[in-house]
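Researcher: Please translate sequence to structure tokens.
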Amino acid sequence: MILVACSHCGTRLDVPAARCPGCDRPLPAPEADEALVVVPEGVGLLNRQLVEAARPFLDHGGEQELAFPIGTEDRGVLATLAGEIAQGIRERRRTGADPAVPGLLRITFSGSAGQGFGAFLTEGLHVRLLGEANDSVGKSMSGGTLVLRPGPLSRYIPEENAILGNGALYGATAGRFFARGLAGDRFCVRNSGASAVVEGAGHHACEYMTRGAVAILGQVLANAGAGMTGGVLFLRRVHEARVNPDYLAGLPWRAEEEAQFRSLLEAHGQETGSTSAAALLADWQGTLQAFTPFVPISVAAQLAGS
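Model: Translation complete:
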């Protein structure tokens, strides 16, 4: 039996067809001696729709707002658009113009995002997802703002439930990330400049982090900060045993870290409606007693000696 498989949406057919019934993409005619014909995935449908809809912003800058539904079959969403924006930055730099993105594109998604949502996000983008996402959210992002919050019909408690998968913000170099919910394992691994706030995270948070600021407002699992050589991680004191002591040490509060933590909480509350952030800001002295800024032990030693 000849089997045709669409690699875009996974639909499999045991009879020839000109187009996939699952996603309406064209299918090749199978050869008689082939057991499996796989359609090259190329650029996903939603990514192509985003670039088309954002053409006014890409061509002329300014302010633009878009909204799209999203599903788990939509992988790497925003990567293509980010690439288009990056090409514009490169071209302006090449011609001697101001390379900064001349405007802001706001996009709201509703639903359950597939792998790699927000990967390679760049400046000029403010993205909200009302729903939840899989692994590798914000991978290698270099700018912009990425916000995850529960959908309007959700009934779960955000502070107790996962809203994204593993490996979020892997290798991020800049930008802001806020999630009203729990992150999976290896949150902000190799982060080298992004700022992020989540309600809780799994194992190995901030592993090999070199720069940036991360606040985990609730639970965190073991081995936080392993291999971390820069940046700051704000955690509750009660979770100090979950921090890798070979790499991180707690600091007494200084004006610099206090202002940074407060700014993160204010932005998190504004972007996500987090009740945790609101409660922490309402009792600031109690919050400072409950949390500790953790930094690499070499940084802590240097600050102690200064």
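Researcher: Any highlights?
Model: The two ends are 75 Å apart (CA to CA).
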